[in-house]
Amino acid sequence: MNEMEEIRTFINLVEAQSATAAAERMGVAVSAVSRRMKELESRLGVQLITRTTRTMHLSEAGELYYRRCRQLIDDFEEAQFEVSQASRQLKGRLRVSAPLSFGVSHLAPAVVEFMHLHPELIIDVDLSDRRVDLVKEGYDLAVRVGALEDSSLRTRKISSVRHVVCAAPEFLSRHGVPEKPDDLNGLSGLCYSNLNRPERWEYQSSEGEQGFVRVAMKMSSNNGDLLREAAIKGLGVLCEPSFIIHSAVEKGELIPVLTDYQWYGMDIVAIYPQTRHLSVKVRTFIDFLVERFGDKPYWEAFLEK
């Protein structure tokens, strides 16, 4: 058995947390994972993983071996890329998790362009607003909108994103154009249900004054595109990221209001595990996204008008 294959099996087993999941990631039989681990532990003369019927835990030796091997594999892949004389192309597989609305509208074209630049790279993109477990599920990175919650993860800002309060012209003609945040209190609101308090919209004025309003929740959903379409039809007022509503604003289907206020405070960030050395393919992809979107993303051009 190739020692490198044993090491890769061990890493996948640790990160997937089950032999079945590790086998799926590697495209091998579960029996192959078990056999390779037995051979690895026999060759090293030490138990790396303590197994029960439901869980597995790294031994002290296993923790040390995992950190060193994870670094070894990432360094090996990076070395292969750096010394390649053929095409300087990225190779291998890149697994990315991203939120649905941003992924479909903005990340998808970027991924396609990136793959044209690196045709030998295989990219696996999962689009869902679900917060995946990067290490356990084997993702190289996640693109997320919002504040970093898990301190065990590393993050890099890709771009800024503003939340914008807006409504259809017909809705504003019926209810009036809000001139101050308090005018939103009690209005029919279209609310993003993944927030802890969907009907409570926090803001900060240009002078630094902080506050919040409470809308009357007319509709809630975990998908911003659905809420945008409801707003276009005049069902209520909306507070959503600029990357979701920018096209509707440019077409005149939605009218931004109270744009002098900062609603919420979020960034688009790339997140990856601390336990993983930032491989060249991950770093190159993040650099590409930062350059493409940047500090003044195209979806906020309407705010400059």
The number of helical runs is 10
Indicate the radius of gyration in whole angstroms.
24 Å
Estimated helix fraction: 40-55%
Structural class computed from helices and strand pairing: alpha/beta
Strand content: 25-35%
Outline the secondary-structure elements.
Elements: H1 3-16, H2 19-26, H3 30-44, E1 49-51, E2 56-58, H4 60-83, E3 92-98, H5 100-117, E4 121-127, H6 134-137, E5 141-145, E6 153-167, H7 169-175, E7 188-192, E8 200-204, E9 210-214, E10 216-221, H8 224-232, E11 237-241, H9 242-250, E12 255-257, E13 262-273, H10 280-293
Parallel strand pairs: 3-4, 3-5, 7-10, 7-11
Antiparallel strand pairs: 1-2, 5-13, 6-11, 6-12, 6-13, 8-9, 8-13
What does this structure look like?
- The protein is α/β, with parallel strands linked by helices and 305 residues long.
- The longest helix has 24 residues.
- The chain contains ten helices and 13 strands.
- Helix 1 crosses helix 2.
- Strand 8 and strand 9 form a beta hairpin.
Task: Please outline what is shown here.
It is built from ten helices and 13 strands. By secondary structure, the chain is α/β, with parallel strands linked by helices.
Comma- or semicolon-separated keywords:
305 residues; eleven-stranded mixed beta sheet; two-stranded antiparallel sheet
